[in-house]
Amino acid sequence: MRNFIAVLVAVAAGSLAVGACSSGDDSGSPASGMCHGDYSALTEAQFKSQLDSSGKCTGSSDSAIECSNDVTTLAEQCGADCYKNEAPDDKTQDACVKDCLSTSTTSPLSEACTACYITDVGCARDHCLVLCGVAPTSEGCYQCRVDSGCVAEFFPCSGLPNERDLSGAGGAGDAAGASGVSAGAGGAAGAESASAGAAGF
Hints:
about 200 residues, globular, mainly alpha
């Protein structure tokens, strides 16, 4: 069974790698002053105004990294790659995700912020492995993560805004998840390109 799941995750990781290199926007990167990934519809100032200062990813360094990188996609790719390539125990998986994420962003996130992503990837791995391993940005993965409490834990931990709740803040998305994210851009309109918000893999 583990080999079957590893194959599914490997296929998903390959899809993520292709999806991360292509998007529905042929212009390449976001306009100057705009964030990337989940928050690409927000300027850096708009993004920072949406942060909950009690969260662990809201310091000036972490928020700058969050805005200038597609951290959700990077965490998803790290989660899938680590599951495919490392021992299945939580300690090994968490260490792998931490190391992968720290080398995937322009600068490493703080330990506290990284811990929020590690917890979220672990939650998706524990509760939504097949759904999130095969289609990490799908509505099915997101709903599984909601039902399993992963989403409810991630946003208070990180202090990041859930892009699905930002419809009144700069037009960054809507409750149906219609905002595009490079993690799943391309795919079947809303479901495949809807962001999972946090890092479910």
